[in-house]
Design brief:
hpI Integrase, Chain A, 3-stranded antiparallel β-sheet, mainly alpha, DNA polymerase, domain 1
Length: 482
């Protein structure tokens, strides 16, 4: 028999489910309505025990009655338990929460914080998002509603790449709901994505090796940015290019992360994007310059006190001093993450094999590595000029080079006219025939009727080679008339 108890103004009821386990569920403020809910729960449990109702269907009904926010939190915890970083799990769950809040009527400005939001602003936005998602249910996640919410993001100026990230998060959440028995089928299978190449908002570029050296030199003598001195920034840029480490990964490095005898640096698994420990060898000159700098840092303290999420802002301090624009004429930018593109591009230009470049970048697929390899147009043009020549080395007549015709055999050269064209006209005297032309009696048949072509060669007879010279077989000589 179900039992009831009251918390504040809300009634709760307890019952025994189909597995014989005592459960407690939230009712409502009306006692009689809560009693009806308790009787329905007991009736369902009895039908399941009797085999009259599918237990999975009953479980899905229970999940549908729970707030959507609880399911999103459970999914976030599942992501972390499967090896995803806490930052990735929070980012993905936050995107799903914002989509749900927009579906329930929230304005985007109320649930999407700007990059420069204060802590108080962030707390207010988090509270507003929680209020809207608390009223949501799994039934609210339909392909039409989610597509409409993503359209709201687009109408507010979000890039197509950002919209694809929201779609990916929502699709991953719905698939997990199916796998965990919360949904019978995936309701978001029809949500379509966008072609991000049509709307590149933050397309990165690489710079030349000379420009890169100027940047590091400018940082070396530059003024302080936040808590980063100029020499500290110069070492940061050099380490980023030499290792391909990301901004947050460099910020996690401590003095004990370095192994000076082996000249390596290690980033712990909790700070890498793929959740695996990363260790890199340092170039000799970089290791030599880093060692005294790191020695002055207390153990356990960050070696580079990078301001959170301000890599591009820090780089903009040194770019003008180096004469490098942050955004070029084609709209491509050079931010801190572009230093990682420099790693792949310089390694590729140095002749490092693609497989080694992939391992250096810690990519699971070489297609992603290829996206980071971004040679400049002038480098591609220079590479084309460095290709070996395929021109034949043997001497060829100038006429062959101009017309592409085959040269005439030297064995036939003394039989041909030394001047004039194919009609035997002299090129130097118009209307005068060359001396090599033989006169013909008036009653003699033209060459065409005698088996000759316009060049006065026999058309139908073969050429005979005697070993010493070449001559044309003339049947009038070989077979005189009877």
């Amino acid at each position: 028999m179900a039992s009831l108890r009251k918390r504040g103004r809300t009634w709760f009821f307890r019952f025994v489910d189909a597995d014989g386990v005592k459960r407690e569920r939230r009712g409502c403020t009306d006692r009689r309505a809560t009693e009806d809910m308790a009787r329905d729960a007991e009736s369902q449990a009895a039908k399941v025990r009797a085999g009259l109702v599918d237990a999975r269907e009953v479980a899905r009904r229970d999940h549908h009655a729970r707030p959507l926010a609880e399911h999103v939190t459970a999914w976030q915890e599942n992501l972390t338990s499967r090896g995803a970083t806490a930052k990735h799990a929070e980012l993905s769950a936050g995107r799903v929460r914002r989509v749900v809040a927009i579906i329930k009527g929230a304005r985007l400005a109320d649930v999407d914080p700007p990059r420069n939001a204060t802590r108080e602003h962030l707390a207010r936005i988090e509270s507003t998002t929680a209020e809207y998602t608390a009223t949501g249910r799994l039934a609210d996640l339909t392909a039409e509603q989610v597509q409409k919410a993503i359209g709201t993001l687009r109408a507010n100026g979000r890039s197509l790449g950002t919209l694809n990230h929201y779609r990916t998060a929502c699709r991953a959440f719905s698939r997990w709901c199916v796998a965990s028995g919360r949904l019978a089928h995936d309701p978001l299978a029809g949500v379509t994505g966008y072609n991000a190449d049509e709307d590149r908002r933050h397309d990165r570029r690489t710079v030349s090796l000379d420009e890169l050296r100027r940047l590091i030199a400018a940082a070396e003598r530059g003024s302080r940015f936040r808590r980063m001195t100029g020499p500290a920034r110069a070492l940061t840029y050099r380490l980023a290019v030499a290792s391909g480490l990301r901004y947050a990964e460099i910020a996690s490095i401590k003095p004990e992360s370095f192994d000076w005898p082996a000249s390596t640096v290690r980033v712990e698994a909790g700070y890498t994007k793929n959740g695996a420990t990363a260790e890199f060898s340092l170039p000799a000159d970089l290791a030599t310059d880093l060692q005294p700098f790191v020695a002055a840092v207390a153990p356990g303290r960050p070696v580079f006190e990078l301001p959170p999420d301000e890599g591009a802002e820090m780089l903009r301090v040194d770019l003008p001093a180096a004469g490098i624009p942050y955004r070029d004429a084609s709209g491509r930018v050079f931010d801190f993450h572009a230093l990682r593109c420099e790693t792949a591009t310089l390694a590729d230009a140095a002749g490092v094999s693609p497989g080694i470049v992939q391992r250096l970048m810690r990519h699971s697929d070489y297609k992603l590595t290829a996206r980071y390899t971004r040679p400049r147009a002038v480098d591609v043009e220079a590479a084309a000029h460095r290709l070996p020549s395929l021109k034949p080395t043997e001497d060829r007549p100038e006429a062959l080079a101009a017309t592409g015709t085959e040269p005439i055999s030297k064995r036939f050269a003394h039989h041909l006219p030394t001047a004039g064209d194919v009609s035997c006209h002299s090129e130097s005297h118009a209307g005068v025939r060359a001396q090599t032309e033989v006169s013909r009696p008036e009653n003699e048949k033209p060459p065409a009727s005698q088996g000759f072509d316009a060049s006065r060669r026999i058309v139908s007879h073969a050429v005979e080679n005697t070993g010493e010279r070449t001559r044309t077989v003339d049947l009038r000589i070989m077979r005189p008339p009877l």
